[in-house]
């Protein structure tokens, strides 16, 4: 075992009173009123952070923004794995798209994006992710303001 692994393993055996002392030493303040298991985890993270470094600044900023306004969280990026099938009914016809390693396949044709597939189906420009129900439409500005308000 490495020195860090030894320290982390030792945390599981420390009595609660000693854990509170470790917290005081690590953070310079009294331990919060949390279950012992969470105190152990927080101390373990802090110890690793001291040795290996913490979160990147961009991630810290994202977390702080999410904590300040949970409603302002961005949608996670769409990640479609090869083998995934998307279906959409349009004008009474069911369309199925297969995600492949090389792109998207529908009716024997290959496409580079979901928007290209949506255009092939409808004949008009569409957001492919929205057309297939993978992305929600943002609320109108008046509703967005009321929700935050």
Task: Name its key features.
149 residues; alpha+beta; 2 domains; 4-stranded antiparallel beta sheet
Output mean pLDDT: 87
Give the helix/strand class: alpha+beta
Uncertain regions spanning at least 5 consecutive residues: none
Q: If strands are numbered along the chain, what order do they take across the biggest sheet?
A: 1-2-3-4
Can you put this structure into words, describing what you see?
With 149 residues, the protein is α+β, with helices and mostly antiparallel strands. It folds into two domains: 3-54; 76-149, no CATH class. The protein is built from seven helices and four strands; from the N terminus they run H-H-H-H-E-E-E-E-H-H-H. It has helices at residues 3-11, 16-27, 36-52, 57-68, 114-122, 128-131, 141-148, and strands at 85-90, 93-99, 104-106, 109-111. A four-stranded antiparallel β-sheet has the order 1-2-3-4, with helices on one face. Helix 1 (3-11) packs antiparallel against helix 3.
Which secondary structure elements does this structure contain, and how are they paired or packed?
Elements: H1 3-11, H2 16-27, H3 36-52, H4 57-68, E1 85-90, E2 93-99, E3 104-106, E4 109-111, H5 114-122, H6 128-131, H7 141-148
Antiparallel strand pairs: 1-2, 2-3, 3-4
């Amino acid at each position: 075992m490495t020195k860090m692994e030894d320290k982390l393993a030792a945390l599981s055996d420390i009595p609660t009173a000693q854990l509170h002392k470790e917290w005081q030493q690590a953070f310079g303040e009294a331990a919060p009123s949390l279950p012992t298991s969470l105190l152990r985890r927080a101390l373990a993270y802090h110890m690793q952070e001291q040795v290996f470094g913490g979160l990147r600044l961009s991630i810290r900023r994202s977390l702080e923004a999410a904590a300040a306004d949970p409603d302002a969280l961005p949608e996670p990026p769409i990640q479609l794995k090869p083998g995934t099938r998307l279906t959409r009914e349009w004008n009474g016809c069911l369309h199925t798209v297969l995600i492949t390693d090389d792109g998207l396949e529908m009716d024997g044709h290959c496409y580079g994006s979901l928007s290209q597939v949506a255009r092939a189906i409808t004949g008009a420009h569409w957001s492919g992710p929205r057309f297939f129900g993978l992305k929600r439409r943002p609320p109108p500005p008046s509703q967005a303001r009321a929700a935050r308000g």
